[in-house]
Amino acid sequence: MPLSVDVLLFDLGGVLVDYSGVRDIAPLLRTSATEHQIRHRFETCPHVAAYRVGKLDRTEFGQRMVRDWEVTVSAERFLQEFRTWSRDLLPGARELLASLRPRFRLAALSNSNELHWERHSEEIGVTALFEVAISSHQVGFVKPDPRIYLEALRRLAVAPEAVMFFDDVRANVDAACALGMQAFQVEGIGGLRERLVLEGLLK
Question: Which of 48, 94, 184, 200 has the smallest C-beta neighbourhood within 10 Å, fewest atoms?
């Protein structure tokens, strides 16, 4: 086991949390599109980007998405649907974290938004599983911006070398490595568990 590791820092969607994303918006669109087309549009959408860093409130976000994406339901209904895109903890996530908690400090760092963070906190109970849980909408930066990682380090009061970070996006992993963290790209609980075993943190 790496002796310097004190904190395990996790992305949420795609690593610990089932996030449905573009699968759920397709039926709401007036014009059909492929999943690839929708995913690209979502990832480059200025409204999504603004909402992730707290520059839009939920009402503005819903109204702009319905208007510009030609969504066939009301803004209120869209927001109700959008909230559920963050489904639940992936099977085995809670148990895996429980097995790590006696030996490591656990933290979360997510590109998220007001509605999904509310769901994580109030309905699913995700944020309560961590000593520190940070969403991009709270701090005004998204991964891979170095400033969001530096904010996590500040709140945890640790050096980057004491942190091992797990994310499903390569650019986010590379940014963490550039700051001196040990960081790995993983997919889901299976991938996370496999990496933890390889690094000697789990049997």
Answer: 200
Are 73 and 94 found together in one domain?
Answer: no
Full pLDDT tens readout for the chain, 203 residues: 455 899 999 999 999 999 887 778 989 999 988 988 999 999 999 999 999 999 999 999 999 999 999 999 999 999 999 999 999 999 999 999 999 999 999 999 999 999 999 999 999 999 999 999 999 999 999 999 999 999 999 999 999 999 999 999 999 999 999 999 999 999 999 999 999 999 999 98
- Range 146-150, long-range pairs (CB < 8 A, 24+ positions): 146/175, 146/178, 146/179, 148/109, 149/109, 149/175, 149/176, 149/179, 149/181, 150/179
Q: Give, rounded to a whole angstrom, the gap between the first and last alpha carbons of the chain.
A: 11
Number of domains in the chain: 2
Task: Read off the pTM.
Answer: 0.93
Amino acid symbol at 116: H
* Residue 91 lies in domain: 7-18+87-198
Distance CA 22, CA 42 (A): 8
137 and 79 together in one domain: no
